[in-house]
Specification:
Keywords: Dioxygenase, Oxidoreductase. GO terms for molecular function: dioxygenase activity. By secondary structure, the chain is of the alpha/beta class. Helix content is 23%, strand content 35%. The chain is built from three helices and nine strands. The chain is globular and about 40 Å long. The chain starts with 6 loop residues before the first strand and ends with a strand.
Length: 138
């Protein structure tokens, strides 16, 4: 079996509001947006926004509001790119959870929570390569 993730789906409280955040804050463009869901094509993977209650129903789970222990990372090419992304998402309504800073592992990283509380890391890892298509090589 191949090692891969094809899709990450985020449950959101207000699909229209979250879509606006992803487009204004991250500068992303939807690949598809059928009623009730928005898909973003990323290098080698897709991200979907789906109503939180609809996702919970689909997965047979209860929304309990606890941090799930999962974060999503966006790797940038430079420290300055990290700072620019953090500023842009904050201006679009994100909460900065941990400001960008030099890390103990030799990189530069910060965390934000999107409008629905999903935690994202924005990092520059000088030991990884970001390819021309945006994919990461470890």
């Amino acid at each position: 079996m191949e090692q891969r993730i094809s899709l990450i789906t985020l449950g959101v409280d207000d699909l229209a509001r979250s879509r606006e955040f992803f487009e204004a804050g991250l500068g992303w463009t939807p690949a598809q947006a059928p009623e009730g869901v928005v898909f973003y094509q990323l290098p080698g993977i897709a991200l979907a926004l789906f109503g939180r209650d609809d996702l919970a129903d689909d997965a047979g789970q209860v929304v309990d509001g606890r941090f799930s222990g999962i974060s999503i990372a966006i790797n940038e090419r430079t420290d300055a790119d990290v700072d620019a992304t953090m500023a842009r998402v904050q201006a679009a309504g994100a909460t900065i959870v941990k400001p960008a800073h030099k890390t103990h592992w030799g990189g530069y990283s910060g965390y934000f929570a999107d409008l629905d509380g999903h935690v994202w890391e924005v990092a520059h890892n000088p030991f990884w390569t970001i390819n021309d298509d945006g994919s990461v090589t470890i």
